[in-house]
Each structure stands twice: as structure tokens, then as C-alpha cells.
């Protein structure tokens, strides 16, 4: 039976200046350290004054930020609820039990570990639980949207495991499952990793499971990007198919920066030991509490609506970019992500990103399924949290086209972006 003791009461904000975005007595910070306070306020204004289209970003709620700024940040709680290496863990235990209960209910998983410090830490722990150094692993090639933890030479994954990359079809931009199956048969990997930083379409989890079973491999789904869509019922849930699901809590899911792992009961002990003590020390308990707050938010009808709006908005944005002359990878999107090639407008992804940034449209470049050129990658999670609608998405696409083509005065475009942002403050006063 989970303990439901409420978390320790949070100190009331007493800051004169927008306490909602600097929750824990921002007044004290302003008085004591004006230098760093000025940096934080400038970042707050940057986020509110430009449009955040980085696909991995979102605006956590004031409640999530309040948990992050709470005194639970002071608490050491190595171990797991009921089995800690420190005294005074009653409320830390309560926070973690609530987070675990909410996560398992939200995603329909038998077991959740909410301690990973980040998405990368979650993947590291998943590999630690299932693999030995040198084991063969299949994952999405980095040039096709794989994450650093999927075998990059500069990452622990590439150093310690024998990765082979599968990829996408250059024509369709979709996963080449025939090649994945052929590689699985040839390599006999210990694990197959399914997940990407830039796939605008859903993976076929049932087919991944089938291929993994054929060669006796574990299936690890790294759902860092779509986890929030999954929570809101706007994307298929990998939990019934995967041995282990890794995720972040700060992308579409809109919680604090951090990671999580879901698995079945039979792997629970191995996953927990792989997180602590194998790859981490004490968990950040304020972050664990903030994850619980985010899981609570994600279980509401308002969040379900949000997740579906995120996808609807990405579709409008993709169509708008296509109308502006961008080549949209896969011709559209099923998720929050849009990948577009600006080559038809005469520039590559890096130049496009620079011109867009100058206009106040903040986003990333990314690899394309074909050639050496780079594209741009956008997401609609943050602008949807701000309350923007379909019309705003169409406007963003038009402004992006104008900024990349350099049609019109760049200052006029930037002013329009600022005005659009100002109409939708991420943290209304
Ligand atoms: C974002 C992401 C991660 C890593 O998350 P961090 O919190 O930045 O470590 C891992 N895998 C995938 C697929 C991601 O998109």
C-alpha cells in the first residue's frame, strides 16, 4: 500500500518580481546575488520574448517549478522508499512513492524507477541492467536520428558496447524495417534500441518486438521525446511491447529535467540496482517530487487535450512550412516534431537556424534521411503550452519562411515574433 503522507509544506513565495517563475523566495536571491539573479531574469525574458521551437523543450508549470525550488532539494535519500541509507527520509519516501504510483498508473507499467537524473542516465542504467561490456546492440544510426546514447563514439554507449546502426529509407524518411530485420539476423544483438531524436512518425512497436523475439534480443524503447504524447494518449504506448522503456520527464511531458524507466516486474530489481547504486548516488528528491507533480498533471483531461493539440499544431506547422517551400521530411508528422529541409529556399539547416534565431524563432538543426546537408527540427510542445492555436502555427510558418528567404525587413519579422510571443506569455502574471 503506497504511503500518501503529503510532502513537506512549501515556503510561500515572497518575491516582489514574478514569484511564479522564480519560486523559492526570489526576493532573497535578488538581494543577495543580483549578478546571478539578473542572469535568471534575463533568461526568463528570453524565453518569454522569443518563440521556443526546440523540440525537446517545454514550459514546466509553476507547480512543478515550486517543487523544484522546495526544501526537499536539501534532502539526501540514497536507496529506495523504506530502504534508505540516510535518516529523516519519511517525506522523501512519500514523494517517491507518489511519483512511482502515478507513473505506473499513467503508463500502465508494472514498475517505474523515477530516480534517473536525465534521459541519458536512464539509458545508461537500462544498458547496465541488461548488457555486459562488448555486447552487440542495434540502434538508430546517429546520422538518421539516433541519440548520443545509441552508440556515439564520444558517449559511454559507443565506447562500451558494439553498436550497429539501422536507419531510415532516404525516400520516405521512415524506418527501414527490412534492413533492421536483416541486421538483427546478421548481428544477433543482445538488445535492440528503438527511439530517435527527430522521428516525426511513430515506430511500429509490435514489429520491433517481433524482430527482437526472432533473434532473442531485449527491446529497449527510448521514448524520451514522445513520452508526453504517450501520457496524453496522443501516441502509441510502447510499454506492452518493450522490456524496458526509458524516457525524459522534461520534453513534451512538461515536468522537471530528469529521466525515468518503466519495466515489468521481473526486471524491476535489476533496473533499480542499475540506477542505484550502479550508475547513480542519491536521487534529487526535489526533482522526484516535481516528477510526481508532472505525472499528476499529465493524468488530467486538460493534459490529454494538450497532447492532442501539440500534434494538431505540429501538423499545421508542417503544412505551413511546406507551403513556404520547405521540404518536410515524411511529408508531415504524427507527433510534436517537424523536420524540414530548407534547401529549396537556397540555404542549408545551419544558415536557416541562424536566420530564424535572428528573428526570435529558436530551434535546432538536425540530420536529414538523405545526403550530407542538415535540416531544421522544430517542436510544438512549448508554444502549445503557451496557449497558441492553429492560426498562430500558420503565422509561425509564414514568419519562418520570410526569415529564411530574407523577404522583408528582418527587424519587422523579429518585431512580429515578439508580438506573437507577448500575446501568449508562458507564465501569465
Ligand atoms: C533527449 C533524449 C535523451 C537524453 O535526455 P537527456 O535528459 O538530455 O540526457 C535520450 N534519448 C533520446 C532519444 C532523447 O531524445
UniProtKB/TrEMBL annotation:
Q: Which residues carry this modification: N6-(pyridoxal phosphate)lysine?
A: 251
Quote the pathway field: Amino-acid biosynthesis; glycine biosynthesis; glycine from L-serine: step 1/1; One-carbon metabolism; tetrahydrofolate interconversion
What GO terms fall under cellular component here? cytosol
According to the record, the residues making up region (Disordered) are 1-25
Q: Which UniProt keywords apply?
A: Amino-acid biosynthesis, Cytoplasm, Methyltransferase, One-carbon metabolism, Pyridoxal phosphate, Transferase
Q: Does the keyword Cytoplasm apply?
A: yes
Q: Could you confirm whether the keyword Transferase appears in this record?
A: yes
- Which reaction is this enzyme known to catalyze? (6R)-5,10-methylene-5,6,7,8-tetrahydrofolate + glycine + H2O = (6S)-5,6,7,8-tetrahydrofolate + L-serine
Enzyme Commission no: 2.1.2.1
Major localization listed first in the record, in broad terms: cytoplasm
Q: Which SUPFAM superfamilies match?
A: PLP-dependent transferases (SSF53383)
GO BP annotations, alphabetical order? glycine biosynthetic process from serine; methylation; tetrahydrofolate interconversion
Which purpose does this protein serve, as stated in its record?
Catalyzes the reversible interconversion of serine and glycine with tetrahydrofolate (THF) serving as the one-carbon carrier. This reaction serves as the major source of one-carbon groups required for the biosynthesis of purines, thymidylate, methionine, and other important biomolecules. Also exhibits THF-independent aldolase activity toward beta-hydroxyamino acids, producing glycine and aldehydes, via a retro-aldol mechanism. Thus, is able to catalyze the cleavage of L-allo-threonine.
How this chain assembles, per its entry, is: Homodimer.
The entry's protein name is: Serine hydroxymethyltransferase
Look up and give the organism this protein is from: Streptomyces violaceoruber
